[in-house]
Amino acid sequence: MGQVWFVGAGPGAADLITVRGARLLGEAGAVLYAGSLVSRSVLEWTREGCEIADSAGMHLREITTWLTTRAARHASVVRLQTGDPTLYGALAEMARPLERAGVTIGIVPGVSSAMAAAAAAGETLTLPEVTQTVILTRLAGRTPMPVRETLVSLAAHHCSLCIFLSIARIDDVVTALRTAGWSSAAPIVVVEKATWPGAERVLRGSLEDIAARCASAGLRRQAMILASPALGARHREEAEVSRLYDLHFSHGFRPAGDPSADDS
């Protein structure tokens, strides 16, 4: 049996796949990609003659059967998933039947849409003395959320939230954040199809108006919701700065500077 690689395609742009992921696509005899979420542009890394199929219309057993039969024919097979395979990718349930069939599994990380959305919007998700924690989560859908992980309970930390798979229920997201004590003026950024060529859109608003803005723009799927007290930090002159680069802070690679020097 050959090896099946679960490769993160990244957020959309073909050149945001990792070097390793691109190499494996070029070596693969067969590739099964998640066509409902992965941009076809990423398939440009495959070689001529590679067997390519779209899993958008497949259920789990069909996916694992396809991968198993191709692993019997090819030394290397790629399951190409959106973003990073370890986030919302059904990795464990796909890997189990493959391993039972004697197929070796490999995993290649990818750039998550959470990071791509923050980059597209020009935002940072952490800010000294404001928030140093990022929570990746979603609303309950067909797959329920654990009771201890409701959006209200997570939002109560008032740290950065990257909310996946929830744009169609933006009203429920707003209600959860309000219930958790977020201000109506809290900034919210929504990024649709981050890094997709010609399709990326960045929408800014506040908790007060973001639902109406999304409805007006027709944002209904494949959009990341960012809620964070760090949003807009680039435009805050009074924002706290990292001690790591402070003139008076020493570490193993740099001694502290002259306390009398101007570090403005």
From TrEMBL:
<dbReference type="InterPro" id="IPR035996">
    <property type="entry name" value="4pyrrol_Methylase_sf"/>
</dbReference>
<dbReference type="InterPro" id="IPR050161">
    <property type="entry name" value="Siro_Cobalamin_biosynth"/>
</dbReference>
<dbReference type="InterPro" id="IPR003043">
    <property type="entry name" value="Uropor_MeTrfase_CS"/>
</dbReference>
<comment type="similarity">
    <text>Belongs to the precorrin methyltransferase family.</text>
</comment>
<dbReference type="InterPro" id="IPR006362">
    <property type="entry name" value="Cbl_synth_CobM/CibF"/>
</dbReference>
<keyword id="KW-0949">S-adenosyl-L-methionine</keyword>
<dbReference type="InterPro" id="IPR014776">
    <property type="entry name" value="4pyrrole_Mease_sub2"/>
</dbReference>
<dbReference type="InterPro" id="IPR000878">
    <property type="entry name" value="4pyrrol_Mease"/>
</dbReference>
<keyword id="KW-0169">Cobalamin biosynthesis</keyword>
<dbReference type="Pfam" id="PF00590">
    <property type="entry name" value="TP_methylase"/>
</dbReference>
<dbReference type="GO" id="GO:0046026">
    <property type="term" value="F:precorrin-4 C11-methyltransferase activity"/>
</dbReference>
<keyword id="KW-0489">Methyltransferase</keyword>
<dbReference type="InterPro" id="IPR014777">
    <property type="entry name" value="4pyrrole_Mease_sub1"/>
</dbReference>
<keyword id="KW-0808">Transferase</keyword>
<feature type="domain" description="Tetrapyrrole methylase">
    <location>
        <begin position="4"/>
        <end position="210"/>
    </location>
</feature>
<dbReference type="GO" id="GO:0032259">
    <property type="term" value="P:methylation"/>
</dbReference>
<comment type="pathway">
    <text>Cofactor biosynthesis; adenosylcobalamin biosynthesis.</text>
</comment>
<protein>
    <submittedName>
        <fullName>Precorrin-4 C(11)-methyltransferase</fullName>
    </submittedName>
</protein>
<dbReference type="GO" id="GO:0009236">
    <property type="term" value="P:cobalamin biosynthetic process"/>
</dbReference>
